[in-house]
Amino acid sequence: MSHHAVMSQKQESVMSHHAVMSQKQESVMSPHAVMSQKQESVMSHHAVMSQKQESVMSHHAVMSQKQESVMSHHAGMSQKQESVMSHHAVMSQKSAGGGMAFMSL
């Protein structure tokens, strides 16, 4: 893990400063982009981390999730048997978090 880099593990690790990272069939991460993960872990400084099948997150955007966890930089986080870590975000485990994020399941 680096300060402004995204790190993902599981048969493939990619680390770059402000670049896009793709992992496991469908996974896109960038500092100001949308991130979608599938059974993976993502950690970045100003990004979101999601685990469990399919999560979608964006920096300052709306997120829609499907039975998964959604988190954004300045938004509420909802987790489901997973761990979420972000730089400046609120964490709520095992419930739907409300913040500046708009969740539609």
TrEMBL record:
Q: Where is this region: Disordered?
A: 1-90
Report what the protein is called: Interferon-activated gene 207
Q: What is the lineage of its organism?
A: Eukaryota, Metazoa, Spiralia, Lophotrochozoa, Mollusca
